[in-house]
Amino acid sequence: MTPRKWDKVATTMLYLISGFIIVVLAFLLLYILISGLPHVTWKFITGRSSSFAAGGGIGIQLFNSLYLLILSMLISIPLSLGAGIYLSEYAPKNWLTDLIRNMIEILSSLPSVVVGLFGFLVFSINMKLGFSILSGALALTVFNLPLLTRKVEDSLQAVHYTQREAGYALGLSRWETVTHVVVPAALPGILTGMILGAGRVFGEAAALIYTAGQSSPPLDFSNWNPTYIASPLNPLRSAETLAVHIWKINSEGIIPDASAVSAGSSAILILFVLLFNFAARYFGNKLYRHLTGARERG
């Protein structure tokens, strides 16, 4: 066979593999949504969960997932930005920097259950945080920080070196060039990575079973003082998230309508993850067009 025919064969194989993966993914998503959406009602979304009786909801679990996500991202984003900027703009090119990058790659490939056990030993036991939202947020930070750091570094390195030289030519210092030229140019990629990271940790379960806990105490939504023990914003209370709730329902099977609750919860979880992914693409493309248009007008 000629090289041209081999190229066509290889291209066809790649298209077939890609199409097969897309079909499998679409089948799984449609199966979860078709099975779960008929069970989703406003009462189901906002209602309290039930341990033994049928008809429970996921209101507290959904709130816990969002609250824990926000808290973990508040911790992860500043750390990942600082680490990514240092590795991209300030770190010298030597064996130590390469070792740090390799360690980040290793950390990003750790199974989530290992991160959960690490969080249980360090945050829940040694730091005496127990099963709490704060312990879960710190575990998610360990889980998500390597990926966010790599995304920030890659986005910064994708900025052409001539933009840095333009900043230096204008008399800007390195820090001013990074903060006023490089970071704004890399902002679409950074924003996309942050939103995708948020979707990844929103559906995490294994790391939270050992840190945030598998139960939620009764909450007083009339008192939002974080120091109040029954406050929804209390970071030291245990918090069963939506993903942990799905795992718990399927593992215990005590609720009479366990299959319906699990299917509805899975559909809500998938919708939120899809929302994060579509939001990442939308805001990333919109911000890129806005910055590109501003540079052309300038």
TrEMBL record:
- InterPro entries the UniProt entry points to: MetI-like (IPR000515), MetI-like_sf (IPR035906), Phosphate_PstA (IPR005672)
Tell me which CDD domains the record gives. TM_PBP2
Q: Which PROSITE patterns does its entry note?
A: ABC_TM1 (PS50928)
Keyword annotations for this protein, in alphabetical order, are: Cell membrane, Membrane, Transmembrane, Transmembrane helix, Transport
Q: Enumerate the subcellular locations listed in this protein's record, separating them with semicolons.
A: Cell membrane
User: What residues form the membrane-spanning segments?
Assistant: 12-34, 66-87, 99-123, 129-148, 258-280
Signal sequence residues: none
| SUPFAM superfamilies, sorted | MetI-like
Q: Name the membrane topology term.
A: Multi-pass membrane protein
Regarding protein family, the annotation reads: Belongs to the binding-protein-dependent transport system permease family. CysTW subfamily.
Name by which UniProt lists this protein = Phosphate transport system permease protein PstA
Q: Which organism is it from?
A: Lapidilactobacillus achengensis
Protein encoded by which gene: pstA
